[in-house]
Amino acid sequence: MEAIDSSASTTTSHRIGYARVSSVGQNLDAQLDALHQAGCGKIGTFQNDAKVVNSLFGETWRIAGFEQTNCQLGFERCRKIFSDTMTGSRMHRPGWDQLLAYVRPGDTLVVTELSRMTRSLLHLLETAQALEQRAVHLVSLREHIDTTTATGRCFLAMMGAIHQMERELRAERAAAGRASAKARGKSGGRPRTAIAKLENARILYENSDKTAAEVCKVAGVGRRIFFAYLAENRRTARLGAHPTGS
Contact at 8 Å (CB) between 72 and 99? Predict the structure, then answer.
């Protein structure tokens, strides 16, 4: 009897699809069709064994159809398409989390467009870096990105450079704005409350039956700064000095 090459299955790479819609009212049909055409989700010869399925995906999987609420899975050892029905702003998406647990080095993650996978440019770059560290390739059908090619890797590197440039430009604009305000005698933050207003509020508060909220409303001062002024006033009074304000 010939020996079975156990390394064959471990060296085989797979194209694994991911699809997402934001709400239950939307459907995944168009994305699933595109992913199937891209080579994802092909039926294979997986043995319908409960112990194997549970070891891979946990006991939440139902053997008949391999379906699960809010996400679906398929692989050549079943089907290789994961999906979610929720907004991309969610940090944790069941289908996405299971995809990340499933992919192996050499696999290729396929999405119909980058927005199905990530929330922002920064999240895209972080995700692409995490996939690269795990030797998982990325393909986006609409943007024609394929990180198995030099062009695809170059495109992602350019997006990273653009993101870094945008961050630096925002920092430069903010610094220029602060310098301009400082040159005009302005400072950042909220404007200071006039000491005269605080003192008038203190006198009214201590010589009437009005509440602090009523006094602050009449005097036009904030409650927090008013109570801070009262505390400072009492502290300096105990020391025999007059408050200088804040």
Answer: no
